[in-house]
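ok so I'm stuck.
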Amino acid sequence: MAEQRSEFDSPWKEVIEAYFQDFLAFFFPYIHADVDWSGLKDLPPPAPRVRDEQAFELFYDLAAAPWLVLGADLQVVAPGMATTTAVFSGLRMMIRL
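replied:
not stuck anymore, here's the structure
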């Protein structure tokens, strides 16, 4: 089933694109005068969001003492667009005073 996403930021982007020069000229005339408006060009459309990653996490906590907890963590992430798999490992220690 395809996931439907709402585009809530598109109207704001259109308003900013249409009225930015006028806004800047009204509220900040000195800044508007310093900008070279002839050199502006449209940016390419944003790349589509691809969410095809897969992840796995393994962790273990050891209560070495009532006031000391040691932990190990391993994460494996296989991104959808990349060809390599990322592996993250970590150690943590929590001391309760």
